[in-house]
Amino acid sequence: MARRRKLYEGKAKVLYEGPEPGTLIQYFKDDATAFNNQKKGVITGKGVLNNRISEFLMTRLSEIGVPTHFMRRLNMREQLVREVEIIPIEIVVRNVAAGSLAERFGLEEGTILPRSIIEYYYKSDELGSPMVTEEHITAFGWAGTQDLDDMVALALRINDFLIGLFLGVGLRLVDFKLEFGRLYNEHDEIQVVVADEISPDNCRLWDIRTNEKMDKDRFRRDLGGVEEAYQEVARRLGVLPEAGPMDLKGPQAMQ
Ligand SMILES: Nc1ncnc2c1ncn2[C@@H]1O[C@H](COP(=O)(O)OP(=O)(O)OP(=O)(O)O)[C@@H](O)[C@H]1O
Ligand SMILES: [Mg+2]
To answer: Do 92 and 77 fall within a single domain?
Structure first.
């Protein structure tokens, strides 16, 4: 395949110029980071699995009318997406207390929240992605009130839908992070769409019966069985590559 221009290398993915203007190729790496980049490692096969899991979830979302950047999967580690203007706000939706929420408010992990809670974080590695309020977001111009309304409405719909989808395969959706971007149509109208990825890297998923963690917390907390957890999520969703773990290394990143 022809060499493509690398536009950005992040912690989990590489972005290449796509075949047509307005498109990008997302290459999924096996690299894993946690605690704002302080912990680094490799989860073998993660890139292959997240590529498939995110493809699956984004496709299901577009089927219910949730707009996403996803166009199609190209190969084991790459997918074609629409290039968007990333809104620098991470939306976290929580259904069950875990992680930083449990810590900050002294809640026991696993406490069911009285209702789904949405949090905003400003996307900045240098600042360690601080939590922010609507006031900060609109005052600093990171997103407008219309963008925010759209993002929250989409996030809640996605939450309701994904809770049911994961429940159907025996997983509890504890919390997850979304990124959104702006797409401009030919009339210069703005559409807010889901971007980045939805995978066990940015969802907390617990087995419904055993409460076993099936996501990146296994890496963050050195629980072991990290590769197996990602494989199990893919298997339950019916997207584990046919050849199984044998097939998970996939092609290496092009230089
Ligand atoms: N459709 C898209 N158009 C433009 N940029 C995108 C799109 N989807 C995702 N991105 C951006 O591509 C990058 C994906 O790489 P990766 O997830 O590895 O980043 P990261 O190291 O986690 O950094 P970040 O903190 O920016 O997410 C992110 O910065 C993400 O915001
Ligand atoms: Mg990222």
So the answer is: no
Mean pLDDT by 10 residues, the chain (255 residues): 86 98 98 95 98 98 98 98 98 98 98 98 96 98 98 98 98 98 93 98 98 98 98 98 66 47
- In this structure, are 10 and 34 located in the same domain? yes
Q: How many structural domains does the chain have?
A: 2
What residues line ligand 1, using a CB cutoff of 6 Å? 8, 10-13, 15, 24, 69, 81-84, 86, 123, 125, 179, 181, 195-196
213 forms bridges with which residues in the sheet? 206
d(CA 77, CA 74): 8
| Alpha-carbon torsion angle 162, 164, 167, 168, nearest 10 | -110
Domain range spanning residue 20?
Answer: 6-83+225-243
